[in-house]
Amino acid sequence: MKTEALVDEALQLLSDGIDGTAIIACSGGIDSTVAAVLAHRAVGDLLHCVYVDTGLMRLGESDEVREMFDEMGIEIKVVDASKRFFDCLDGVTDPEEKRKAIGETFIRVFEQEQKEVGAKYLVQGTIAPDWIESGGGERDVIKSHHNVGGIPEDIDLEIVEPLRDFYKDEVRDIARLLKITSSERQPFPGPGLAVRVLGNVTPDRVQTCRVACDIVERGIRRAAKEGECDLPWQYFAALLPVRSVGVHGDARVHGETIVIRAVTSLDGMSARYSPIPHEVLSKISTEITNTLKGQVNRVVYDITHKPPGTIEWE
Questions:
Q1: pLDDT tens-digit profile of 136-179?
Q2: Residue 254 host element (H or E)
Q3: Residue pLDDT, tens place only, 182-193
Q4: Helices 278-291 & 203-225, crossing angle to 10 degrees?
Q5: How far apart are alpha carbons 68 and 198 in whole angstroms?
Q6: How much of the chain is in helix, strand and coil states, percent to nearest 5?
Q7: What's the farthest any 2 CA atoms get from each other in the chain?
Q8: Is 3-187's fold the same as 196-301's?
Q9: Do residues 240 and 258 lie in contact, with contact meaning Cβ atoms separated by under 8 Å?
Q10: Which sequence spans correspond to the domains of the chain?
Q11: DSSP string of 197-226?
Q12: Distances in Å between the alpha carbon of 271 and those of 99, 175, 311?
C-alpha cells in the first residue's frame, strides 16, 4: 500500500474512533510522534499531548522532545514522574515484570492527566511488532511491550491505535511524508533505559547506562559520517549486572560491564549485527572506561543476530 493511502487509513481510523477529548503519550520516538501528528490532524484541539519524563530517557532527550514538538506547532505537557517509575521498579529484575510495572505506571500517570482534561480516549503509537511479540492467542510471548502486555485490565480509557497494523518501515515512510524531524531517528524502547539496565534499576545504574549510550551513539555516528562504517539501524549500550576485576593505574577496580549493540534491520522483526570496525569499537571502549572510571571496567560487543537474540537485551 502506498504511503499516502496508509496516512488516509490512519486519519480515517482516528476520525471515526474519537468523538471526545483524547490524550496521547509522546516519547519523542517515531511511533508515538507519528501517531501524535496524525491524531492532531484528525481531531485538532481534542488531543492533549503528554511527555512523561520517566527518569529512564537518554541524555538530553526531554529537551529534544520539547523542542521538536514546538517546531511542529503541537503543544505538549511535560510531566516529571521519575520518582514513581523508580519506585515501581525497586527490586524488580525480571524483564517481563519490569515491562509490566512500567506499563501500569504509565497508565496510572495518564489516568491523572485524564482527570485534568476529562479525556475519554488514549491514543497509542502501538505498531505490529509490539503486539506480535507480546503474544496472545496462539502466539508465544517474546517480550511484553509496555503499551500492550503492561496495560492493566481496569483501565478507564478507550484505547485508539492508528498504527497497530503497520510495521516500522511503513511508519518511517509516513514520518518522511509528514516531514517529521525524527523520521530518521533510531528506535528507542518504550520502557526506556530500564530494559538496557539488566538487573536492579537504580538512578545511579541508569545514569551509567545513559552516559555509555551517549558515547556509543556519538562514536558510531561520527564513524559513519567519516566513512568508516555504515550507520546501523539501531545502536546503543546496555549495562550488565556482571562485575569483574580490572585496573586503573595501579588501583584494583571491581566494575560492571557495558555491552555495545548495533544492528541492521528493516522493520525490527529480524536483524543482523552490524560489523563495526575494531578501531571504532576501541575508541568507544576507551572513552567509556575513562569516563565511567570506577564504575565500568569492561566493554564487550554483541554479535548476535535476531533471531536467536532480540534487538534489546530485555
A1: 455 454 444 444 444 556 667 888 999 998 888 899 899 999 98
A2: strand 251-264
A3: 767 788 888 999
A4: 150
A5: 30
A6: 40, 20, 40
A7: 68
A8: no
A9: yes
A10: 3-187, 196-301
A11: B-S---HHHHHHHHHHHHHHHHHHHHHHHT
A12: 22, 22, 7
Q: Structure pTM?
A: 0.81
Question: Which grid cell sits at 66?
Answer: 520539547
Residue 256 C-alpha cell reads as 560492571
- Is the peptide bond preceding residue 189 cis, with omega within 30 degrees of 0? no
Cα distances from 243 to residues 199, 200, 253, 298, in angstroms, run 12, 14, 10, 9
* CB-based contact 139:97 (threshold 8 Å): no
H or E element, residue 47:
strand 47-53
Cα–Cα dist 24/4, whole Å? 23
Q: ∠ at Cα 90 (84, 95), nearest 5°?
A: 105
- Buried b or exposed e, range 96-114, using 16+ CB within 10 angstroms: eebbbbbbbbbbebbbebb
Contacts for 216 with CB less than 8 Å, ≥ 6 apart: 235, 236, 237, 260, 262, 284, 288
Dist CA 233 CA 31 (whole Å)? 15
Cell numbers representing residue 235 in the block: 545502536
- Contact assessment for residue 292 and residue 278, using Cβ atoms and an 8 Å cutoff: no
Q: Which residue has the higher pLDDT, 142 or 198?
A: 198
The grid coordinates listed for 44 are: 485538532
Characterize the bridge pairing of strands 251-264 and 296-301: parallel
Show the CA angle centred on residue 90, arms to residues 301 and 61, nearest 5°.
55
May I ask the CATH architecture of the domain 196-301? Answer: 2-Layer Sandwich (3.30)
Query: Residue 294's closest CA among 240, 254, 265?
Result: 254
Residue 199's region, left for phi above 0, alpha for psi from -120 to 50, else beta, is left
Whether domain 3-187 has CATH 3.40.50.620: yes
Which phi and psi angles does 126 have, rounded to 5°? -60, 135
The amino acid present at 295, given as its one-letter code, is: Q
CA distance 191 to 163: 19
